């Protein structure tokens, strides 16, 4: 009897089927700079990768508590060499046919993505997006999709220029980096912060590198959507770390 009630409840909860569909707009490689952060807060060269999306609820009924988790799978010669993740983006709700714009940012501290783009002819790196959401009846859903970068020759040349700057920066600014690292070791955090701020000002004035735009597209055949039980939904939330949600930045 209890099993029948559970099945009836699940069937009722899934009667409303919203579907927040993510359409890629554009992406760009941010101008390189020196980053600092956990675990040791020692400065290093890196860059931010931005992916701009449009999210539209193309299903039936409102979608609520939409958690979007990006992972950039970096591939070289058909072998996974690195992956970058970002904080969860959360959209409180999307009414039926409502559309918003937002972006996802990932920081590449090992410059793995640019290296893969420049050094390998066949590009298999992909942005994997997992989205979890609910309907107003309490039903739970999950979508997965892969997006690939579609680069033109001119864009690849800009990536080559950017890679050269990234590889030279650690050598050209070794003295400044060593000084900042020493301040961290001596627990002089405020001075270390001022040092990295001044270093980035100097780097920006001396190195001329514009942000590099690129296209990215949905990989055909990779989009999937499926319903989840409440238990499965809670496990998925834990897996993607959605208990530490980041606010969605709408453009």
Kindly report the average pLDDT value.
Answer: 86
Report the strand count.
12
Portion of residues in beta strands equals: 35-45%
Task: Give the uncertain stretches in residue-range form.
Answer: 244-251
> What is the domain tally?
1
**Radius of gyration in whole Å, from Cα?**
21 Å
Instruction: Give helix and strand order, one letter per element, not per position.
Output: HEEEEEEEHEEHHHEEHE
Distance between the termini: 50 Å
User: Which structural class fits the helix and strand makeup?
Assistant: alpha+beta
Form type: globular
Q: Strand count, sense and closure of the main sheet?
A: 12 strands, mixed
Count of helical segments? 6
Q: Which percent bin holds the helix content?
A: 25-40%
SSE blueprint and pairings:
Blueprint: H1 2-13, E1 20-29, E2 33-35, E3 44-57, E4 63-76, E5 79-85, E6 89-94, E7 99-108, H2 112-119, E8 126-134, E9 140-150, H3 153-172, H4 174-185, H5 189-206, E10 212-218, E11 224-228, H6 230-240, E12 246-247
Parallel strand pairs: 6-12
Antiparallel strand pairs: 1-3, 1-10, 2-3, 3-7, 4-5, 4-6, 4-8, 8-9, 9-10, 9-11
Helix pairs in contact: 2-3, 4-5
What's the gist of this structure?
With 251 residues, the chain is α+β, with helices and mostly antiparallel strands.
Q: How would you describe what is shown here?
A:
The chain has one domain. The chain is built from 6 helices and 12 strands. The chain has helices at 2-13, 112-119, 153-172, 174-185, 189-206, 230-240, and strands at 20-29, 33-35, 44-57, 63-76, 79-85, 89-94, 99-108, 126-134, 140-150, 212-218, 224-228, 246-247.
């Amino acid at each position: 009897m209890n099993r029948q009630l559970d099945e009836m409840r699940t069937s009722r909860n899934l009667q409303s089927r919203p579907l927040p569909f993510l359409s890629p707009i554009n992406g760009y490689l941010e101008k390189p700079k020196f980053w600092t952060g956990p675990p040791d807060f020692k400065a290093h060269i890196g860059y931010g990768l931005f992916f701009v999306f449009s999210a539209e609820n193309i299903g039936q009924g409102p979608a609520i508590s939409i958690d979007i988790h990006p992972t950039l799978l970096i591939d070289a010669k058909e072998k996974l060499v690195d992956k970058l993740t970002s904080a969860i983006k959360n959209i409180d709700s999307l009414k039926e046919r409502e559309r918003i714009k937002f972006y996802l940012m990932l920081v590449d501290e090992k410059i793995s993505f640019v290296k893969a783009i420049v050094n390998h002819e066949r590009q298999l790196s992909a942005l994997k997006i997992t989205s979890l959401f609910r309907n107003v009846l309490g039903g739970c859903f999950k979508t997965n999709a892969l997006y690939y970068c579609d680069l033109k020759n001119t864009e690849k040349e800009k990536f080559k220029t950017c890679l050269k700057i990234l590889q030279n920066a650690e050598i050209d600014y070794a003295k400044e980096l060593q000084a900042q690292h020493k301040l961290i070791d001596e627990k002089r955090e405020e001075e270390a912060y001022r040092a990295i701020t001044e270093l980035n000002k100097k780097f920006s004035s001396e190195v001329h590198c514009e942000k590099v735009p690129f296209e990215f597209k949905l990989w055909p055949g990779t989009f999937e959507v499926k319903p989840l039980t409440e238990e499965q939904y809670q496990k998925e939330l834990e897996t993607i770390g959605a208990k530490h949600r980041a606010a969605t930045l709408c453009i």
